[in-house]
Predict the structure.
Amino acid sequence: MSSFYLDAGTTWSKILEVKEDGKRTYSVLHSCDLPEEREYIKTTGHRAKGLKTRGHVNEIVALSKGSQECLGNNGVILDLGSRDAKWVKYKNGKFSDMDWNSACGSATGATVEMLLKFYDIKAEQLSPQDEKYSITCGIFAMEKIMDDISKGIPADIAISKFIHGLAFNAFKFTKEPQELLLSGGFCENKCFMDSLNKYCNALPLGRFVLVDGLLY
Amino acid sequence: MKYFHLPSECSESAAKTLGVSLEPEIVTETRNIIGFWGYPEPAVMEEHKKLYPKAKWIDLDIDFGNPPDKNRSKALPEAYCKIIKNIFDNAFHMRENIIKIIAPVGKDKCDSAFFAASILKEEGFDVQTTVFEQTALRKPTPLCKSAIPLRKKIEMITDSIVNGTENHPKFAPCEPRFGFWGVPPNDLSLLELFPDNTHAYGWIRCVEAGVPADLELEMQIDPDVPTVFFAQTFCAKNQPAKYLADKYNGLYIDVDGYVNESVKAKIEAFLQLR
């Protein structure tokens, strides 16, 4: 019989199945499609509340535990999700600092997904731009995108500038580290990773860091 | 003999002592509230306690759930400190019952309260401003160091502004596991997230020490105690809160009105990981 662990994000859910022989299988599901009848050993994330679970874990705690091996004694990990961003810093092997930005979620993953869908562009078409939009406010940034597109700039370039702004924000939000570990769907977005690498050494850990943290 | 606008709660003996006379036409049964905010100058409070021995003292800073008053929007932008909003909403909601407002306007409170006092006066309230800035006499702060629940600590400290500490039992100090720095939040449920062995610092400790304008004491913390630095959104105290959190590797949070799930989660994570 398998044991299930769940990181239920706003848009996407990451599931870890651990079989009796210890074999692990990871999957990603749209959060709207989560089976309601399944009981999880542990859950984390906004969308997990209301589901059957033996224990709900704080997201920053899950991020911290799931990244500890990679972080080592000193390091910063940022989880960039659909609607929020959170990071944890370790210094001398101990938790040192953290932050969680959930108030202005318009400038994160869900916005990028909507932009790509709206302009019918694949993430692979995006290329890193030297120019960036200031996206302290996502709504103002959207206005900039639309302004640029109306002036004839191709949508993929405008969205790439937006993503550059997002990467810059991620760097500033984590207090400008030299090296930054990244968790979440943006690990698979080359344009974002290349943009972030303009500012620091960005290392992608993938989408399953939080769900791995539930094993501890 | 001078004539003062005094309601029925004014003791006759106090009136005689002060050489004043009750003016009969404004005496009613319902005007029985002294409104105040912050930490009024104690001598002014004592004077008014003698003058109105039966009056109820209501802390206008507190969120009593009164609906937003239309008069408030004349003075305050929508994005503004929730505590000052409370002052306006409470004052206008209880307008018919308020005898007088005792209004701290010095460094013991804030500039917003200074303007609020002036505006409420212009709106017809009887407002007496006070400034309580002495810093020489710091009293001990047993409640801040005690092991009683943080919310209870802070409620007892604010209650002691009017009622004193004579009826408090003796509190043994505890070793602090965490610290909470700041003012009483609008949403007191935030305090329930902390364990009982949380020490209180900041303005709330200054209040227990009887020195609400003592910036030196307000800026003191225990550097080895993991501390959450709280300020109400749009309050100038965000400045020291942010500065101290950065300096002592604490957690800085500001909350506008009510605590949301994300703020709770952030505090929970800090308490679990530190």
About this structure: Residues 155-173 of chain A form the longest helix (19 residues). Chain A touches chain B at residues 58-61, 64, 84, 88, 95-100, 102-103 (CB under 8 Å). The mean pLDDT of chain A is 92. The first strand of chain A starts at residue 3 and ends at 8.
